[in-house]
Amino acid sequence: MTQGSPTVGQDKDSVPRAWHIGFNNETWMDLFLSSDSTSMGWPQVDKDISKLQSHESIVDATDASESVHPRNPAVQLRKFAHEAEIGDIIVLKDGLRYHSDDEWGGNGNIRAIGVIDGEYTHADARDYHGELPIDATNKMNEHHRSVRWVINFDEQLGGPFTPEIAFSQWTFDELDEYPTLREQIISSRGLHEKFAELEEYAASVAQSRKEEKETTVWIEKSYHNREDREEPGWGLGDALWCPQTRTDGGGSIYYENATGVKKGDVIIHLDQDQRAFTGASIAADDYEETTCLEDTEWDRKGVSEMEYNSGERPAYRVPLKDYRELASPLDVDAVLDEENKEVLHKLREDHTVVYSKNLNLNQGAYLTRSPPALVELINDTAHQKVGESIPHLATNTSNRDVQSGNDEDEEKSKARETVDSISKATSLVVERLAETEYANPLREVSADRIEPWTLALRGFNPGDFVVPEEEIDFQDLKSYLKTNREHFDRIASEISITGLDNMNPAEVVFLALLRDRQKSLIASRDLDIQPNASQPKLNAILRGAYQHFENPTHPIIQQVRKDDTTVYRQSAPIDYWEPVLRHRACGVGEADYGLWAGLNRGDVIVFHANAETRFSDPEYDDGFLFGIAVVGERFESNEKWWKNNYARDEQYPYRVAFDRLFLTSGAANASNLTVTDSVTQLRKASVFS
Question: Which candidate, 321, 221, 234, places its Cα nearest to that of 271?
Fold first, then answer.
C-alpha cells in the first residue's frame, strides 16, 4: 500500500459501522492484542447466546444478581453477538472519557483499532485461548469475537491515543463518532496508510462474508427431450454434464463453468425446447472429470470432428439431487420482458448471463452463474405468473443450507448437533469418532509434518504477509486436505457434524482432528506450542486471504531475505543498459562513489530503464524495470563501454560485476513505469516497496 491510496473516505456512507469495547485489565488487553480477538463476560450470563436473537430471550438466560440489572448484559451481549457484523470496525479503549464545562476529562485512551472478522463464539476462555496468563484471574470471559487489530497504539510512536470524543460507559456499544475519531488521529499522528489498510480489510471481509452467505445459483439451459435425459445418472435432475472443450479444441466459458459448481449450489433448469424454466436441483457434490456419455451428440461430434473413439471425449460432470419441477413451467419471456430491460442490461454489463443484448437466449450458453438480482427477478416472476417460487428458493436464498426436500430420519436429525465453536466441534468430533470404525487420520501424519503447520499458524491472521517458508507449509496443509477431503467428508456424514461459520462439515472435521493431533503431540512433548488451528485461520489459508511472494523459491527472493543483504536501485536511460548486458557489469561515476564503495558481494541491485534516451536509437515510449542482479566483485576501469554521445566525458569508472543477472518481464514489454530521468543514479531502495 502506498501513500495516497484511497484511505479515509470523506463520504459518510462509505464509512464502515464502528463499535467500541472497554477494558481496564492490562493482562486481558494484552491477550486480546496478541490473540487477535476480544471477549466479554458476566458471571450472570454463562450461556451460549448464539441462538438467542431477542432481547427478552437473553434476559431470560441471565442469572442476574440484585446489583446487576439483566438489561445491562442482555443489551450489550445482543449487540456483541448479533448486531456487530463481520467487517465492522472495533475500537479498544481503557478508562473513561467525558466532556464537561468545555473541557475534556477522564483517563480514557484508545489502545487499538481493528476489524471484526469472525462470528460470535461461546467458549470457556481457557478453551478459546488455549492458555491464559497466570494473572488473568477472571475466567468468566466466555463470549468471543475474532478481531484483526490493525492499529496497535502501544506499538505506535506516541503510545495510547487520548481522544476528544466521549464514549458511553457501557462495555460494548456502537461508536457513531468513529469518523471524528479517525480524523483526530490522522491530524495528530498521521497513520493514513494504517487507516487505508484498516478500512480496505473491513470492506474485504464484509464482502467475503456476504458472498459466503449467498446461495450460488446456476441456470442450466438445454433441450430436456434430448436422448441422454433417460440415462440413469446422466438425465435431467441427475447430473450436469458437458464436454471440456469445443470441437475445435478451444475453451468455452459455459463448459468451464461446471468446474465452479460447489456442493449445495442450486441449479435452475431451463428447457430450450419449451423456452421455459421447468424446475431446480441441488448440486450433490463438486464436479468430476469424466468422458462424454457414449452415442450422444457430444460424443458423436468428438468422434467425427476431434478423432476420439466413442466414449473418450473429455467431459465434466456434476451430480445433482432433489430435482423438483414447477407445477407449471415459467415462460422465459416473462422474465426477459421489456419491462425488466433496464435491470437486465445492467446485469449483462457486469456478468456472463444466459441472455443476449436483444433479450434472447444466448446460443450455446449451457451453464451460467446467475447473479442474485437475476435470481430474485426469476423468483418474483414465478410468484406472479405461476403462483409459486422456484424450487429450493422458497426460503431465504441467502441461506446456504437450502432445503433438500428429503428430511433425514428423526434420530439422525437429532444427532446432527450444530457446533458453534471449534472447541465444541473438537470435543464432539473426537467423542463421536471413537464410536465408529474410523480413526483420526491425522494420527498417521508425522510430527515432523504437523509441527511446521503449527509454527506457521502461530501468530498468523487473515490478510497477513507470510514468508516463503510459511507459504510452503500452508500449501502443504492445503494439499493434505485436498487429497483427503473425501475421507473427511465421509467422516462428517457418518458422525453427523454440521458446518461452522463459512466452513463446510469436512473442513470442520479436519480442523477438529488437527487440533486433537496437536494436543496429542503436546502431551507427548513432541510439540511445545498450544493448539492454534482455528476456523478464521483455516478459512484464510484455504481461500488464500494473505499476502505472499509469487515465487518464494526464486534465487532473488532467497537472497533478499538474508539479513546481511542490502538492496539498491539503479536508474538510467535505456541506452546505458546495452553495455551492461554485454559485460554483465554496471558502472557509476564520482557522484555515487560512496555507495559503490559500500557495496558487498551478495547485495542486490534493481535496474530501472528510463523512458528517455540520449540518442535516437533505440526509441522507447515508456520506462520499465529492467533486471535484478546479485553483486559480485567491485573493480575500477576506464575502458570505454558507453558511446561517446551518451557518456560524454564520463565512462563510469567505478564498476560492479554480477554473480547472477535476471531480466524482468518489463524488459520485454516496457510498460511498467513512466519515470523519466536523464542521468545515471544509484540509490538504496527496497526491491519490494
Answer: 221
- pLDDT tens sequence across 622-645: 456 778 889 999 999 988 888 765
Apex 166 CA angle, 164 and 167, nearest 5: 130
Strands 288-291 vs 367-370: parallel, antiparallel or unpaired: unpaired
> Which 3-state string (H, E, C) describes 305-353?
HHCCCCCCCEEEEEEEEEEEEEEEEEEHHHHCCHHHHHHHHHHHHHCCC
Max mean pLDDT among 38-42, 170-174, 303-307, 519-523 falls in: 303-307
Q: Which residue has the cell 429450493?
A: 392
How far, in Å, CA of 548 to CA of 17, rounded?
A: 29
pLDDT score, position 413: 39
Which residue, 417, 382, 389, is CA-closest to 403? 389
SS3 160: coil
Residue 299 has pLDDT above 90, yes or no: yes
Helix (H, G, I), strand (E, B) or coil at 95: coil
Distance CA 211, CA 646 (A): 57
The Cα 257–Cα 286 span in angstroms is: 12
Residue 251 has pLDDT above 90, yes or no: no
State pLDDT tens for residues 22-80: 887 788 888 888 888 898 877 677 788 887 777 777 777 777 544 445 567 778 888 88
**How far is residue 467 from each of residues 230, 450, 464, measured CA to CA in Å?**
54, 18, 10
Q: Does residue 436 sit in helix, strand or coil?
A: coil
Contact 459, 533 (CB under 8 A): no
Of residues 181, 194, 282, the one with CA closest to residue 240? 282
Site of grid cell 546481511: 564
Between CA 649 and CA 658, with CA 655 as vertex, the angle to 5 degrees is 140
Mean pLDDT, the chain, whole residue set:
79
- Angstrom distance (rounded) from CA 322 to CA 387: 21
Asked if 587 contacts 651 with a C-beta cutoff of 8 angstroms, the reply is: yes
Give the residue-averaged pLDDT of 459-478: 78
Element (H, E) at 568: strand 567-573
Contacts of 440 (CB under 8 A, 6+ apart): 430, 433, 513, 516, 517
Q: Are 238 and 119 in contact (CB under 8 A)?
A: no
pLDDT surpasses 50 at 400: no
**Averaged over 477-500, what is the pLDDT?**
82
Quick check: 520 pLDDT over 80?
yes
Q: In 69-145, where does DSSP find H-type helix?
A: 71-78, 125-129
Identity (one letter) of the amino acid at 326? Answer: L
3-class DSSP assignment, residue 198: helix
Contact predicate 285/263, CB 8 Å: yes
36-50 exposure pattern, b = at least 16 Cβ within 10 A, e = fewer: bbbbbbbebbebbbb
Amino acid in the structure at residue 18: A
Residues near 98 by Cβ (< 8 Å), separated by ≥ 6?
104, 105, 106, 166
β-strand pairing of 109-116 with 143-152: antiparallel
pLDDT band at 101 (very low <50, low <70, confident <90, very high): low
Rounded distance between C-alpha atoms, residue 265 and residue 261, angstroms: 7
Which three three-digit cell numbers place residue 493?
A: 456424514
In this prediction, residue 228 carries a pLDDT of: 78
Task: Give yes or no for a contact between 218 and 368, defined as CB atoms under 8 angstroms apart.
Answer: yes
Q: Any residues with CB less than 8 A from the CB of 272 and at least 6 apart, and which?
A: 221, 222, 223, 224, 361
Split at pLDDT 50, 70, 90, the class of 552 is low
pLDDT band at residue 280, thresholds of 50, 70 and 90? very high
